[in-house]
Amino acid sequence: MAHARDGFPAYRGEMEYVCQGCGSRFPAAELYYTCPGCGGVFLLEDTRFAELTKTSGQTWREIFDSRAASKHSALQGIFRFYELVAPILEPGDIVSPGEGQTPVVRANSDLEERVGRPLAFKNEGQNPSASFKDRGMACAFSYLKSVLRQKQWDRLLTVCASTGDTSASAAMYAAYVGHPVTSVVLLPQGKVTPQQLAQPLGSGARVLELPGVFDDCMKVVEYLADNCPVALLNSKNSWRILGQETYAFEVAQWSDWETGDKAVFVPVGNAGNISAIMAGFLKLHRLGIISELPQIFGVQSCHADPVYRYYSSPPGERRYEPVSVRSSAAQAAMIGDPVSFPRVRSLAERYQALAGESAFQVVQVTEQEIVEGMLQANRHGHIACTQGGESLAGLLRAAREGAVSREKTAVLNATAHSLKFQSFQQMYFEDSFPPEYEIQPRQELINRPRQVRGVDATPGAEREAFVSGAAAEIMELLGLSGD
Fold this sequence. Notes:
This protein is an alpha/beta fold. It has 17 helices and 13 strands. The protein has helices at 49-52, 57-67, 82-85, 109-115, 133-151, 165-177, 194-202, 214-227, 238-244, 246-254, 272-286, 306-311, 341-355, 367-378, 386-400, 422-430, 463-478; strands spanning 15-19, 25-27, 42-46, 104-106, 119-123, 156-161, 181-188, 206-210, 230-232, 262-267, 295-301, 360-365, 409-414. The strands form three sheets. It has a six-stranded mixed beta sheet with strand order 4-5-13-10-11-12, with helices on both faces. Helix 5 runs parallel beside helix 6 (165-177) and helix 5 (133-151) packs across helix 9.
């Protein structure tokens, strides 16, 4: 694969929007969100992709492995997979404040023994804004920067609806790009953790809280995008899907490009991420970079499960219907009408045609299983959010149902950093979940601080007396004996 003189790839693709409803195509020079004809959502396609197949899979593996150590600023982060992401961008368009290359951390022997099979967490919380959303935002903002350069706009307002992570990422990337980009985020009032609310505020975004749930905010954002000159940054934006495909590329690279023995578990949420991951593995397979596709499992809470309901019906009887969501600890997945469901359906058909019906499945889990999945993961050294707990719960459910082989290594998507969701951990420890969550804490998983009084350190008291008194109380609590 040829490179320009500065080391940046010489290859340039030709991108088109492809409607997943009617199949209509539109050039990528303009920003589209939905098909003008049928209202369907898009996937982006490089019409010159066949040229990439002229390079062997082995050569591609060597290229991507070498770029993992690159110091070229435009080939770091997700853009080390430049040819597979958005190969119409120029080096100066690329926005990459450090996303991607998140670690895949193999579980310790205790957790693997408890689960009964090999597994690993991919820690997406180690992205700059502490969630997987940065992958898509890097691509979306790079495209917007390209548009700004070509059209010479002097103002661009970005807008998104969010349950927390999207707003944090969109606000951070907008702040990083700076003038002429500004950010507005719409949040469902009272349904975002304090940590997540703090992030867009800290990045300087204008934060607007609406009554209702995410689906209500999304409808307002869609209206704004259809009627006002704004850039929508939810996963309806197909440039975001392109960036999120790199999760699949990194899992494959971690696996030394051998993915047939892997099972990848992904919370469904708005269905953009699971769509992107399927699309990413399909690209790698088409280029011969991987020879076998991994199994992919979508996971949904029983409180927000429209995609599970669709796939739990026999193929000839399937009918997609939105659901009314109930409160969920996996807040980012509390979506009753996923925007990207048409992408899931289209990509799943292609995926299953290549690798069999069992290659793509959706499992349902309870809220109890989600929170306890998070707690169990983190008690074994991980930094999983509630969605990471949902992934572990999904693995356990798939294992009980015999849907995943014991020999496969499960790769679980911890979508965000655990610190964003500490309020749910606290609610579990304090047994303060409202009844609608249907969570009853188990005593063996509750952990609380215990006060040690020792000897009062009043003015004039001897420090030695305080130390010895506190130590004696601690020794009694811990069952320790002195020498």
